[in-house]
Amino acid sequence: MSTDPRATISAAPMSALQISAVAITIGLNALDGFDVLSIAFASPGIAADWHIDRAALGIVLSMELIGMAIGSILLGGVADKIGRRPTILGCLLLMTGGMFMATAAKGVVDLSLWRVLTGLGIGGVLASINAVSAEFSNARRKNLSVSLMSIGYPIGGVLGGLVVQHLLKGLDWRSIFYFGSAVTAIFIPLVFVFVPESVHWLTQKQPPGALDKINVAMRRMGHGAIEALPAISTDARKRSIADIFAPGLLATTMIVALAYFFHIMTFYFVLKWVPKIVVDMGFAASSAAGVLVWANVGGACGGAVLGLLGMRFGMKPLTIGVMLLSAVMVVVLGRTPPDLERLSLICACAGFCTNAAIVGMYALFAQAFPTHVRAFGTGFAIGVGRGGSVLAPIVAGFLFKAGYGLPMVATTMSFGALVAAGVLSMLKLQPDRTDVDWATTRTELPDASAAS
Q1: Cβ(333)–Cβ(292) under 8 Å?
Q2: Per-residue pLDDT for 53 more than 90?
Q3: How many Å separate Cα 258 from the centre of its chain?
Q4: Which of 44, 192, 395, 429 has the largest count of CB atoms under 10 Å?
Q5: For residues 203 and 6, is the Cβ–Cβ distance under 8 A?
Q6: What distance in Å separates the CA atoms of residue 205 and residue 218, rounded to the nearest whole number?
Q7: Residue 113 falls within a domain, yes or no?
Q8: Are the CB atoms for 28 and 187 separated by under 8 Å?
Q9: Residue 138 contacts residue 10 (beta carbons within 8 Å)
Q10: Strands (DSSP E) along 205-324, which ranges?
Q11: What CATH number corresponds to the domain at position 258?
Q12: Is the residue at 72 inside a domain?
């Protein structure tokens, strides 16, 4: 077989190995979802144990998000340089260590440090698995694969929340981090065995031994071996991860990063503050975790629905639409009375809309960036966006401390999704191009201002 292996993967039905790799990215994102939400699940217990106020708690809630911002940018670039597989494995080690050591924290400072370390690993994994889900998929299922990967996040919140409800009935908040550390460690051998290095990355970078690694992966996918590596043009070989700031991609990079930044403020207001809000209404911490579970059930449903719709309709208008609905639902959440059933229903609807928009953004990242910058472009957008996730719990915390009620705080935080929809409306996507086109063309990167 002499064809480009990327073209073969793009055109052929997905094999068991490809499906397994995408399934593992779903699991990794579920793991990320639980790891990020673990501090939210634990926050009522931490506040009671250490007697800290809402402003201090908001800072603690933001620490792993700072790590995620740094990890997404730095380790996303590493994934484009050394490969997706080793980056994911290294990040899982960081996450396991950070989650485990959080159990030994004696105060806000050392807990914050371990949450930053955990966030570094999460950020690197997020940037890498978006590339893996896109590159292990064929062309027909690419949007669906990325969308399914994305809904792993709320699935992790749902399953983790169900476990946490039982843990918190008999154990303290540290049990959450013990559980998270153990589950994270399980994924290390799974990735090692079932996720080979991306054929797209190997073909583009062509490191030593690339041909053998490609052929091993192609055989595992049920395809024949290739006789030689595809010829890559000199210009393509010279491309670097800095191309996301080149004239052809700069506008796209900034638009998707800013849209993600603003929407994530609304998204993380819901995820980070719902447990504390519910507890402050007079309900038990286990009940608060249950409400957050419903937010994630809605999020998983929203992501799945958007992924299916994305196979028939444009991902950009779908994403803008659910961003606008997100703003509406967060305003409604702020005016919901202290009733667990109504709170659960409204949080499910808010989760549906806010997470569907996140799923849409991940699909747009995969469309907007070619192979040689896909992880870094995704990581940069996530890293900038994490600035919004860092600000969300802090801003809300200080608004609460200043005496504003839940209706005003929720309305204020809903504006993030509105601004995100406006920013995303300026995005001009290129007509669909295969990774083969991106890698072999001798022309400069296309002008991001060209209309789709």
Answers
A1: no
A2: no
A3: 15
A4: 44
A5: yes
A6: 17
A7: yes
A8: yes
A9: yes
A10: none
A11: 1.20.1250.20
A12: yes
| H-helix or E-strand spanning residue 4 | none
pLDDT at position 355 over 50: yes
What is the widest separation between alpha-carbon atoms in the chain?
Answer: 69
The first and second tokens of residue 121, run together, are 């690993």
pLDDT tens-digit series, residues 219-259: 999 898 888 888 876 566 556 777 888 888 888 899 999 99
**Are the C-beta atoms of residues 37 and 274 closer than 8 Å to each other?**
no
Q: Could you say which DSSP state residue 208 is in? A: T
Beta-carbon contacts of residue 357 (< 8 Å; ≥ 6 apart) = 263, 267, 319, 322, 323, 326, 417, 420
Structural domain boundaries, residue 405: 5-440
Report yes or no on 303 lying in a domain.
Answer: yes
d(CA 344, CA 64): 26
- Tell me the angle at which helices 54-82 and 371-401 cross, rounded to the nearest 10 degrees: 180
Q: How many structural domains does the chain have?
A: 1
Q: Which element (helix H / strand E) includes 243?
A: none
Neighbouring residues of 366: CB distance < 8 A, sequence distance ≥ 6: 130, 131, 133, 134, 142, 143, 146, 374, 378
CA distance 107 to 432: 51
Per-residue pLDDT reduced to its tens digit, 425-434: 998 876 554 4
Cα–Cα distance, 176 to 181 (Å, whole number): 9
Do 153 and 382 form a contact (C-beta atoms < 8 A)?
no
Residue 145's nearest CA partner among 257, 297, 35, 21 is 21
Nearest-angstrom CA–CA distance, 375 and 369: 8
Residues 6+ away with beta carbon under 8 Å from 376: 73, 76, 77, 79, 80, 127, 241, 244, 369
- Cβ(270)–Cβ(325) under 8 Å? no
pLDDT in tens, 372-429: 788 888 888 888 877 777 788 788 888 888 888 889 999 999 999 999 999 999 988 7
Instruction: For residue 446, tell me if it sits in a domain.
Output: no
Once rounded to an integer, what is the mean pLDDT over residues 170-185? 89
Please tell me the pTM assigned to this model.
Answer: 0.76
